[in-house]
DNA sequence: CTTTTTGTCTAGACACTGTTTAGATTGCGT
DNA sequence: ACGCAATCTAAACAGTGTCTAGACAAAAAG
């Protein structure tokens, strides 16, 4: 409950306070529980204030999505360290799926193209940086050149690497991977084992 | 514009009229353009009427999702006719991706677990029936038994078959597959060719 | 053929939502 | 110290999903 109080009329750092508030709400209640007014209340500010900093709700959520892609990029960056070929692809995919499972709210937001501004340059750059390790692994595995944004859009081998990760991640967030324990919680260990099996079937 | 007029106080078949209205709205404006009141207006009925038939908006959308899964099931049913092994998996995945591309609104709805009632029995049955051909192909390819619902939840080989299809379909609806033509339209032919390449890389 | 009962639908309200407008308040550069 | 620009508020607007009464009509019961 980071209800940012404030003494002065001006907030001081409302922009990042709103982003933090949004992230907390999304982590706690999911994207469907998020509301622009709720974020404003959490930052201790009037309902109209966010508009001035982000233009619209999509502007704020775009920043949250950007930061989420940066978090994903950080987790993916070191995951293939010292690994090559299919082993690298397996490790990266496993991290991708774990990220989706452990950050369901953020991951769902990243897929909500109706809530964020897909054409935002910073967001696109973050997406590119996040996908970079996967592209490098795909290129390394199958003997391709240095990945560029254009390459990533079109090369079938990279898409073949991304698609299973994306699909598994979605299945994970929908609770369709592995057995769920009572109370709706997921058995993370069993899920990891299942994902590992799937990955060995796809990339032996 | 199926603005169902009516002469009598009672509608006669409001339930299916609302489902049709919802489907038309989703096809034309996407899930994000859908509104329960809009569907009610289209059926020529007051805003509170739908609640009586479906309990809530999620109830109506669950029916739309169910019918969408049935449509998908119908398209998948005959796609692997006469094919075996990886060829069957490739054909089924291609159909899955085409369905997502040609029915973006419905496909997006199927993934919106916050808008539909996932635990609805009819919906679950429809999902199961839709996934059946993929399960059969995966079982046939790799020597497994007859697929059952429990099997489909847990077997890594089936998940390995579903995940790429799911991932590719999501990438397709987000416009990240193949080059998009000006005006935002997708070059379907080029996309099919790309998907074919991807599938041959995954399942040679 | 009436009467009752049951299922449909309407009207209006409620508590929300995101966004807009005009105005109040403050910090900063000169 | 003053004016300007940035920042935030207050109030309103159109729209949402859902709830509670009650109006209406078709089917069942007498």
TrEMBL record, chains A, B:
<feature type="domain" description="HTH tetR-type">
    <location>
        <begin position="12"/>
        <end position="72"/>
    </location>
</feature>
<dbReference type="InterPro" id="IPR036271">
    <property type="entry name" value="Tet_transcr_reg_TetR-rel_C_sf"/>
</dbReference>
<dbReference type="InterPro" id="IPR025996">
    <property type="entry name" value="MT1864/Rv1816-like_C"/>
</dbReference>
<keyword id="KW-0804">Transcription</keyword>
<keyword id="KW-0238">DNA-binding</keyword>
<dbReference type="InterPro" id="IPR050109">
    <property type="entry name" value="HTH-type_TetR-like_transc_reg"/>
</dbReference>
<dbReference type="Pfam" id="PF00440">
    <property type="entry name" value="TetR_N"/>
</dbReference>
<dbReference type="Pfam" id="PF13305">
    <property type="entry name" value="TetR_C_33"/>
</dbReference>
<feature type="DNA-binding region" description="H-T-H motif">
    <location>
        <begin position="35"/>
        <end position="54"/>
    </location>
</feature>
<protein>
    <submittedName>
        <fullName>TetR/AcrR family transcriptional regulator</fullName>
    </submittedName>
</protein>
<dbReference type="InterPro" id="IPR001647">
    <property type="entry name" value="HTH_TetR"/>
</dbReference>
<keyword id="KW-0805">Transcription regulation</keyword>
<dbReference type="InterPro" id="IPR009057">
    <property type="entry name" value="Homeodomain-like_sf"/>
</dbReference>
């Amino acid at each position: 409950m980071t209800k940012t109080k404030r003494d002065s009329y001006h907030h001081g750092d409302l922009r990042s306070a709103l982003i933090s508030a949004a992230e907390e709400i999304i982590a706690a209640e999911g994207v469907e529980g998020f509301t622009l007014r709720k974020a404003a209340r959490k930052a201790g500010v009037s309902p109209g204030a966010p508009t001035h900093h982000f233009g619209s709700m999509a502007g704020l959520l775009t920043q949250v999505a950007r930061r989420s892609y940066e978090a994903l990029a950080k987790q993916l960056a070191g995951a293939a360290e010292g690994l090559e070929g299919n082993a690298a692809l397996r490790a990266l995919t496993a991290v991708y799926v774990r990220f989706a499972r452990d950050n369901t709210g953020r991951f769902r937001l990243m897929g909500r193209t109706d809530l964020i501004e897909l054409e935002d340059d910073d967001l696109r750059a973050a997406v590119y940086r996040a996908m970079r390790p996967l592209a490098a692994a795909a290129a390394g595995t199958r003997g391709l050149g240095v990945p560029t944004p254009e390459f990533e859009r079109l090369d079938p081998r990279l898409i073949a690497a991304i698609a299973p990760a994306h699909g598994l991640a979605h299945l994970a967030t929908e609770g369709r991977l592995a057995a769920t324990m009572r109370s709706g919680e997921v058995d993370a260990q069993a899920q990891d084992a299942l994902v590992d099996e799937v990955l060995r079937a796809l990339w032996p």
